[in-house]
Amino acid sequence: MQFGIFSVGDVTPDPTTGRTPTERERIKAMVAIALKAEEVGLDVFATGEHHNPPFVPSSPTTMLGYIAARTERLLLSTSTTLITTNDPVKIAEDYAMLQHLADGRVDLMMGRGNTGPVYPWFGQDIRQGINLAIENYALLHRLWREDVVDWEGRFRTPLQGFTSTPRPLDGVPPFVWHGSIRSPEIAEQAAYYGDGFFHNNIFWPADHTKRMVELYRSRYAHYGHGTPEQAIVGLGGQVFMRKNSQDAVREFRPYFDVAPVYGHGPSLEEFTAQTPLTVGSPQQVIEKTLSFRDYAGDYQRQLFLMDHAGLPLKTVLEQLDLLGEEVVPVLRKEFAKNRPAGVPEAPTHASLLGAARKGADADREGART
After folding, report:
1. Tens of pLDDT, residues 266-318
2. What are phi and psi of 4, to 5 degrees?
3. Start and end of every Luciferase-like domain (predicted)?
4. What's the pLDDT tens digit per position in 102-115?
5. Using CA atoms, how far apart are residues 257 and 259, in angstroms rounded to an integer?
6. Burial 181-200 (b: 16+ CB within 10 A, else e)
7. Which residues in 79-217 belong to E strands, given as ranges?
């Protein structure tokens, strides 16, 4: 399994001090968090994409390219690439460029975002959100796999004899996850292409996540990509830890109470009981995270949200130390226990390249016989 962190890049006042970081401070903090993730042995750093306050990551490839130059092993990803409001041609070119710069340490997660006003800013209609996601990704998928593309659709100008540049590294496109919280159409889309499906797994109870993952797995098998157990699943989650669980609850409560996403609603105790949010000791985080397998099956990627709601950088880095030193080593060991041999590992550029070469060799052998 791959373990890592994902950030939405919010600029939120610290409720305990009243201070709001500058945009520069928040951007630099995200970089520091990514570098720390590699230092403590995590596998993945993923950034969101937003084009409105109070968020800063409007250009994920710029940030990830900078991080790529300062890391050696970390896999760089997105927690949302806006397939609805970005031009798929630009996505194809930007992420292929990043793939080359990062020596293949790149994948990305397609999403529609959750901010309605963004659509008209980029000339689109939110009422067409699902249709945009389906059509734009269909084009992106072809742009990465066909050297010359002729295409016509509803939402952008036609293409005639078009080649996106640069071509994907080694002829292998970045692996794509399709992220969704509640849209079965997106789970269906991921299954159709044989791509990965990532469930946010923060806001909703386990039975909802279970239904979405099971839908994806069953449709993955329906389209002939393998068994349901071979489908590629990723989950999110949010944690806040201290050595003593009471200290964690006391310290995190003011941040939870005013958080932009879930503040001013259910109590911290209600939210942790009803959703995957874990606030407590490292052992409690381990136990709650291991329970995800009970409803999602054996899966490939676990990302944690660590820097939301105004938490200061110092605190986030302390959280990452606990995650890397006390939590993830145990999770790696426990998730590996009794994992069926047929469950695939998380895709990487190396594994995708190996599969492509194996397929090419098989095709050549078939042609000779």
Report:
1. 899 999 999 999 999 999 999 999 999 999 999 999 999 999 999 999 999 99
2. -170, -165
3. 1-294
4. 999 999 999 886 66
5. 6
6. bebeebbbbbbbeebbbbbb
7. 81-82, 107-111, 149-151, 159-162, 175-180, 196-199
Q: What's the rounded Cα separation, in Å, for the pair 246 and 252?
A: 10
Please say if the pLDDT value at position 49 is more than 90: no
User: What are the tokens at 185?
Assistant: 């159409």
Q: Which helix (H) or strand (E) holds 210?
A: helix 206-222
Q: What letter represents residue 303's amino acid?
A: L
Tokens matching residue 333: 């060991």
- Residue 277 CB coordination number (10 Å): 21
Apex 11 CA angle, 5 and 16, nearest 5: 95
Contact 301, 285 (CB under 8 A): no
Q: Tell me, what's the pLDDT at 114? A: 65
89: its two tokens = 């041609």
Residue closest to 209 by CA, chosen among 270, 271, 297? 297
Q: How far apart are CA 290 and CA 335, in angstroms?
A: 7
Instruction: Tell me the one-letter amino acid at 22.
Output: T
The sign of the torsion formed by the CA atoms of 271, 7, 76, 361 equals: positive
45 strand-pairing partners: 5, 76
> In a 3-state reduction of DSSP, which class is residue 44?
strand
Contact between residue 87 and residue 124 where contact means Cβ atoms under 8 Å apart: no
Position 160, amino acid: Q
pLDDT category of residue 126 using cuts at 50, 70 and 90: confident
Q: What is the pLDDT of residue 253?
A: 96
Rounded distance between C-alpha atoms, residue 301 and residue 149, angstroms: 33
Predicted local confidence at residue 128, as pLDDT: 83
Question: pLDDT per residue over 237-263, tens digit each?
Answer: 999 999 999 999 999 999 999 887 777
